[in-house]
Amino acid sequence: MGVAEVKTQSLYSNVQRGKKEDFIYLTASDLILKQDYFSDATAHYWVQADTVHLDGSIRLPGRNLIINARVISSHGNISISTSGLPVPPDQDFVQEPKADSGIKAIKSGDDGGKGHDGSSGANGMAGGHLVLTAERFNLKGELNLSANGSNGGRGQDGGDGMDGRSGDDGRDGETHIFWFNDHSTSGGDGGNGGDGGNAGRSGNGGDAGHIFIGYVVSSEEQRVTMETKVGIAGAPTLPGKAGAGCPGGIGGLQLETVSVGKKSSVTKRSSTKRSANGKDGVNGTVGISAEHAIDGKPAQSIIAQIGYSQFYGAKIADTEIYKRLSPVDLETGLSASLERQTLTLHKAGLAYLSGSEEKLEEAADLLNWLQQTIPNESWFNEVRAQSTYSEFQSDMLDASIQWLALRNKAMILITQLGQGLDYFSHPWNWVPLMPLNKYQDLGVNLINAAQQAETLYRDYILAENDQRGRLKVLTDAISVAVNRINDIEGQRQDSIKERARLEIEADKLYEDILSKEKSLQKVAEEFVEALRKKLALSTLKATFDLIVNGVALVTNVTPALTALKTGGAIASAMSNYWDTGKTIVIDDTFKNAKTVEKEKKKKEEELSKSIKNVTTAASSGLAIIKDGIEIYNLMGQMQEARDSFGYSSSMLAMSREKFEEMLKPVYDQMPEDKVEEYRKAFNQYLNVVEEYQRKKQAVTAKHLEEAKLFAEMAQRRADQDRIKQVMGDDVDAGLPLFHTYIFDLYNGLKLALTDFLYQEYQAYRYMVLSQELFPFVQDSHVAELSRIHADITVKLTNALNASENPVQPFKNVTVIFNEASFPEQFETLRAHGTAFFPLTLDNQLIRERIAGKAHMMVSDCHIQIPGARNAAGSIHIEYTHSGHSTFLDSYGQRFDFVHNKSHGFFEYEVTPDRGATGDIEPKELIRNESGGAVGDGTSRIMPGLLSVWSIEVPGEDRGGLVLNEGVDLSQVKKIIMTFQGKAEAYAAKAPGTKFTSFVAKKPISEKFADHEMFGLPDTGTETEIGKENSILIEL
């Protein structure tokens, strides 16, 4: 039983259409509703969409129409009518009020004809029921709703019976001489009167249809007008009149013989004697009257404010409404379907992907809607506890896994928004380690794979009216989904391993933070106390928190956090989640009891972990909001002082430079050496705090990713079970249940391509230092996504052609870390721990020494530790680029990117110069250098020079084998790091178009090529620590 698609719609318009019994289901993400969609005048319609825009008036005579959406809108005056059609003229006898009379008697003695029975008028058509439910109505004109019953048709009066004809008189007797006499005849019988025709019954008036308007947020629902008139009964009818019977004829005068004399007689006509008269006709009977018709039944028209819970079947508080609107199935009519909510989640994902503040607000609105209109486990438990279920509740329980998995995914996306993460759980300034040119090479293959998924979807759509064809596509789709589930499980396991690694790194950073906190408290206590007095804050802790939180947050400012701090949809979604969404459970109850018992324990163990992770992340997201509010409160206390500083914007948007400027009046009141000590300690502390925040954010992102993948696996497995159960039944394979399964699978595979293109776009942004966000995907088809891939190539070509700044290699940028400046780090190194050294823009010396060089990226890193050996031997050093790169572009604008860390080793042989004595720094001869690769720009991106670098001199490797035997760090006073890489010159002046850079196609340093972080040993050239022609930065 197939249903033809609406011919005017695009193949990829995502309007799902299917029929079940006498209902046609239309399901979409966004639907422009026109009369064209209602081509089957015999069916009722159920429309489900996130937004429904009414484009023109709609007539659906006598049929029920349910429209359920988040937003119902219109641009002008619109009418929707389910009023019954007027009775056809041939069934309404106003113009022919009386049936034909009987046939007129023609001959004497004929009976009068019987009057025709009156025809019955048709009943009026009942108005169809109208149910429109939405969160809000955005109407720019009146919305006129009518569900009137039509009037009943008038029946006909019965036709009159005709009078009979009188009987003929009999013939008088006649005598004749030459032939026989004619005797008299009897009179003819009179004709009977015809019976009157029965009255035709007039039709009843059509019942009015119920109208229910439900809204959650009051907006423009007052523009809705409703009309529910009953149909008037047809006018009463009369029976036909009876025809009169007529008299019979008089008998003729008889012949009689009269004697003449005694022997003679004469025959003659008698003057008195007659033959018998005819019988008189009988009057006809009057026709039978018809039963009077009745008016249609009245209906209810109700506009009511409802709650979000009604969209998943919770009862309205005023339960009388359900009785008043009977027989409307209001429980089902108010509910958003699983298929429609799935499409809404997809729509939210597309908005989230684009990353603009406006689109993030839209995504938050949609996700907030989903979390409030999808049932949680408590609702399912309440339903199960009932003694009986309605049909609707039974269907909901059958799909409990899908509902709760969908809720889970929405909650996770809300949590990501609250954490300031992009759709794929990365920071918004995240970039992949694979360079752009690799993405350019691989893109075509992934686009081809997505095309295959699109073909499967297209085959399903084109198999209209072909039940067998659609079932075949469904079977193929199940096979594809099995592979997808296996892929998801693999991704989840990878995420778990990566999270464990990130947690170890964060723990190391935390230890470093604790040591720096002590140092900061020692050198900064006097300064912070002076600042507290200047800002009139109540406690030293409040002042310290203001400084640290206010500035540390600035490095993680994202479109999401910008929206958070200004309130709006994201903050609202997080708040609602915290109130209602702490627990996320996926249940299995639609399966048989034995299967549930076997599977439930294992699944509950996994889910409890997933629930805890998501709840913890959500709590953290709420803390961001609270922190924001706290900062604003503190800013209120700072109003007077802030005005004197001449700075009035939010601290969340404050750069370190502006922060320094704000504190300048406090600096001026303190000794210069104290200020410098504080600034140095404070910046070192903040550098590591920020890096720790990034690591913890990454750990949170992995928790969310794992929960999201688990929810998707649970949903897809449940979908498969549900599809298999009903595929054998005689149901329309075009129903939204099946359509959404194919469409969701198609979107999942298309999302994998989108993920790749998103990474490619981020790689492009990193390469040319662009603030441009990923383009908004309209979600038409794969061709649109392939255009993004092509556009990047065009943009890159245009950038290279417009650039005046060729890549410039740099060598021997040498940074010396002295123990006097970094005592905690040197102490950590001597204990074979990991020491963190920040190279950041807030250090004025670094800014001065790298002046003139923009977009500095590192390909190689050499590290030397003078005085680490008293005898000749090798030194093995491990180093890590933290994964946060800061750049200045050729116009001095700052860019920050986050990526995975780069971890490598540098090893060299050293021969101390025995001739050095006293305080003279020993000279060392270095040879056989190996390792040192960071990124070659071809197989791996070059990270930025400006970052937090860590150094470790391990005592043994991961296998427990001894390293650095004979190395003694007790007398080491400095560490020397020498970098090689590429940079650009600053622009001579600011033209209209920004210049861009590009990545070298070959490693800048062939000597230290990146081969899985292992370099080839040097040929033995001896070098000294002090290299000429180097940029020296001594810290």
What is this structure, in a nutshell?
This protein is an alpha/beta fold and 1035 residues long. The protein contains 20 helices and 26 strands. It has three domains: 217 residues, no CATH class; 464 residues, no CATH class; 230 residues.
Main beta-sheet strand count, sense and barrel state: 8 strands, mixed
The total count of helices amounts to 20
β-strand amount: 15-25%
Structural class: alpha/beta
Helix content: 25-40%
Domain count: the total is: 3
- What form results from the Cα inertia axes? rod-shaped
Unreliable residue runs:
1-13, 548-567, 577-598, 600-613, 615-654, 990-1028
Region (Disordered): 103-126, 143-203, 261-284
Coiled coil: 485-512, 586-613
Keywords: Coiled coil, Plasmid
Biased composition (Low complexity): 261-275
Descriptive overview:
With 1035 residues, this protein is of the alpha/beta class. It has three domains: 16-154 and 198-234 and 293-333, no CATH class; 338-801, no CATH class; 805-1034. The two termini are 79 Å apart. The relative contact order is 0.08. Mean pLDDT is 75; it is low at 1-13, 548-567, 577-598, 600-613, 615-654 and 990-1028. Residues 103-117, 162-175 have a biased composition (Basic and acidic residues). Residues 485-512, 586-613 form a coiled coil.
Describe how the helices and strands are arranged:
Layout: E1 16-20, E2 23-33, E3 44-54, E4 58-59, E5 65-74, E6 78-81, E7 130-134, E8 136-139, E9 143-146, E10 211-215, E11 224-227, E12 253-260, E13 264-274, E14 301-305, H1 320-324, H2 330-333, H3 338-354, H4 357-373, H5 377-384, H6 391-398, H7 400-419, H8 436-462, H9 467-535, H10 540-552, H11 559-565, H12 569-580, H13 593-637, H14 639-645, H15 656-667, H16 672-727, H17 736-768, H18 782-802, E15 808-818, H19 823-830, E16 835-839, H20 844-849, E17 853-864, E18 873-881, E19 884-888, E20 894-898, E21 902-912, E22 924-931, E23 947-952, E24 974-985, E25 1023-1024, E26 1031-1034
Helix pairs in contact: 3-4, 3-7, 3-17, 4-7, 4-12, 7-12, 7-13, 7-16, 8-9, 8-17, 8-18, 9-10, 9-16, 9-17, 12-13, 13-16, 17-18
